[in-house]
Amino acid sequence: MFSGIVEEAATVVALEKENGNLHLTLRCSFVDELKIDQSVSHNGVCLTVVKLPGDGTYTVTAIQETLERSNLGTLQVGDLVNLERSMLMNGRLDGHIVQGHVDQTARCVALTEADGSWRYTFKYDFNREMAAKGYVTVEKGSVTVNGVSLTVCNSQTDSFEVAIIPYTHEHTNFKTIVPGSIVNLEFDIIGKYLSRMMEFQK
């Protein structure tokens, strides 16, 4: 379980395909604190640490389904990936409840600077059946974009906006997102549960 508060934007240093899987090797400042089998969120995708070679890097593996549902398959060496270690149960929930299970991707369709902050507009494929199950955004609700917990603005049927403060812009890979960029979305799990329960009231 995660909170959507990114700790660091790590650098991809190697990519290795093996059948339908992709092994991603990254470099980050807290690699010495990681251990094998530990869960770490990568652009919002929960992946397990499988290798710690001791050279300041670590490796995780993404399976085919993950690659099809997220933007991890588009990564290249040198790209930045938002990292968050799993949430401590005795800590503050500074973001919102994030599972690390990406629902789908979205495309950045607009970016504007707003006197020191940035507004991004993201558009995603709308599916009415999935929307009925809670896979939608709501005004002032929570959404996870590339692992970052954000508040929704201008919620539309198949798009929404988020406002990014300078700190988030500098310390995540939002500084690399431009119109055309593909990002990972995780819709609010509470909305999904409520939608599911409402199905049984019909």
What keywords describe this structure?
12 strands, mainly beta, six-stranded antiparallel β-barrel, 202 residues, six-stranded antiparallel β-sheet
Strand percentage lies at 35-45%
Biggest sheet strand order reads 1-2-5-4-3-6
The first-to-last residue Cα distance is: 31 Å
What can be said about the biggest beta sheet? Answer: 6 strands, antiparallel, barrel
Order of helices and strands: EEEEEHEEEHEEEHEH
Mean pLDDT: 95
The total of helices stands at 4
Based on helices, strands and strand pairing, what is the structural class? mainly beta
Percentage of helical residues? 10-25%
State Rg. 17 Å
> What are the low-pLDDT stretches, counting only 5+ consecutive residues below 50?
none
Instruction: Choose one word for the global shape.
Output: globular
How many beta strands in the DSSP annotation?
12
Q: Helices and strands in order, then pairings?
A:
Layout: E1 8-18, E2 21-27, E3 39-42, E4 45-51, E5 57-62, H1 64-69, E6 80-85, E7 104-114, E8 117-123, H2 128-131, E9 142-145, E10 148-151, E11 159-164, H3 166-171, E12 182-187, H4 189-199
Antiparallel strand pairs: 1-2, 1-6, 2-5, 3-4, 3-6, 4-5, 7-8, 7-12, 8-11, 9-10, 9-12
